[in-house]
Specification:
Helix content: 25-40%
Structural class: alpha/beta
Shape: globular
Distance between the termini: 50 Å
Radius of gyration: 21 Å
Largest sheet: 6 strands, mixed
Length: 440
């Protein structure tokens, strides 16, 4: 039987061999730590500490300021140096709590101690996840406690653990599946306790046979969990494409996965749920991949939130050659970094340093009407027509062409022989339409 997949998609160079065989290395921060109050979709957290306060590992320093928001917890012990605007990954500024690390890592009472989730109620589990500040760590940053509180929990049939990791070069999820599969399974069991009728599917692309074998061995005796093998194709790990491939169900931008009986959580998110509920540890660390041909030594690192990207580059032995481009995330959906002196956040997944800027090397030419973008689009859209409308500022037509259904996955841009910046055009158009709708 062929492995599950979706219509469309592309097969970019994977680049995973650079770091896939490298075990996760735990690194400790050297300088001050910076905690942005906006590390998630929704309202920024509100700082609840002030300059001069002493804080502990796991202590809440930012409180969720709305239903769609998330707490921020300190990853170190030390003294609050400042509460002030600092520059973030995307170049914008936001309020941050700056902490001088005392190097002692003194934790809050109970930090790391075992807790039996089977003795907790559903509401207690949801409250723990909320207090721990857990968000989607695959890049979206949606507060997990909200996702685990759908309107009709009895209608949830599937909990999908997204282990596809389809973005080229990234191997952090892969390494976690190899190195801590039990934590993934236990985290999934915690989530399944919230949904009596649901089945757990751990979804992995078939280019990761070792991870598939490891996870299958751990779930052998779990009657509510199985490993779902997916075909290797980008963007297999997108929420909509994953649901389509794993369950055959379809959702569109106006719907949530819960509307079709599904909840999707990234591997790192599920591990974070396990640690919060069973080990009394809020979200204070994450695993990142440092990779690309400009690095002296690609590496997977377990890092404390708030540390500087510049410190991590040193862990990769610096650069063997000055990078032409540095990307936060992968080459398909990540974005270029212009400054490494910015903090690691909950949604930071990698530093990709390349000796050649593939985008800058391409001069776009007029569309040749080849239709490759249409064939590649996983959303069944017509990128050629959408681009035409967006470039003419004809946003009504862009919307009629279902432009708001775009995943911004980059597949169309990847296959375009004219090297047109299609995805960037759609991103700007979608932002404009969303802003106009918000005004109304």
């Amino acid at each position: 039987m062929s492995n599950a997949t979706f219509r469309g998609g592309v097969h970019p160079y994977e680049g995973k061999e650079l770091s896939s065989d490298l075990p996760i290395k735990t690194v400790q921060p050297k300088g001050e730590l910076v905690f942005p109050m906006a590390q998630h979709i929704g309202a920024p957290a509100t700082p609840i500490v002030k300059k001069g306060d002493r804080v502990l590992v796991g202590q809440k320093i930012g409180e969720a300021s709305g239903f769609i928001s998330a707490n921020i917890c300190s990853s170190v012990s030390g003294t609050v140096k400042a509460v002030e605007p600092r520059t973030l990954l995307n170049g914008s500024k936001a309020t941050c709590v700056v902490i001088d690390n005392d190097g002692e890592y003194t934790g809050i009472p109970g930090l790391g101690e075992y807790r039996d989730y089977t003795e907790l109620s559903k509401d207690e589990i949801r409250e723990i996840v909320k207090e721990a500040g857990i968000v989607g760590m695959g890049g979206a940053g949606f507060p997990t406690s909200v996702k685990l509180t759908p309107k009709e929990p009895d209608q949830i049939d599937y909990i999908l653990v997204n282990g596809a990791e389809c973005e080229p070069y990234l191997t952090s999820d892969y390494r976690q599946m190899l190195e801590c599969p039990e934590e993934i399974v236990e985290g999934l069991k915690v989530i399944l306790k919230l949904f009596d009728k649901a089945k757990g599917l751990i979804c992995i692309e078939d280019n990761k046979p070792e991870a598939i074998a490891k996870m299958e061995s751990v779930v052998q005796r779990e009657n509510r969990i199985e490993v779902k093998v997916l075909k290797t194709k980008y963007p297999q790990g997108g929420e909509r494409t994953l649901i389509s491939a794993a369950t055959g169900r379809k959702i569109y931008s106006a719907k949530l996965p819960s509307d079709v009986g599904c909840i999707v959580d990234n591997v790192s998110t599920v591990i974070a749920v396990y640690r919060a509920v069973c080990k009394q540890t809020p979200l204070i660390t994450r695993v990142m991949t440092l990779t690309g041909d400009a690095f002296n030594r690609p590496i997977n690192v377990n890092v404390r939130l708030g540390c500087s990207h510049a410190e991590l580059v040193e862990e990769g032995g610096g650069y063997r050659e000055d990078p032409a481009k540095i990307i936060s995330g992968g080459p398909m959906m990540g974005f270029a970094m212009y400054d490494l002196n910015v903090p690691v956040t909950k949604t930071s997944s990698s530093i990709l340093a390349m000796t050649r800027d593939e985008v800058a090397a391409n001069d776009p030419t007029p569309c040749i009407r080849c239709g490759r973008c249409v064939a590649a689009c996983p959303g069944n859209l017509v990128p050629q027509k959408m681009a035409e409308a967006a470039q003419n500022n004809d946003y009504d037509t862009f919307v009629k062409l279902n432009g708001m259904e775009c995943y911004e996955c980059g597949s169309c841009t990847f296959v375009c022989p004219a090297k047109r910046p299609l995805t960037q055009t759609f991103k700007q158009a979608r932002q404009y339409v969303a802003a106009q709708r918000k005004k109304k």
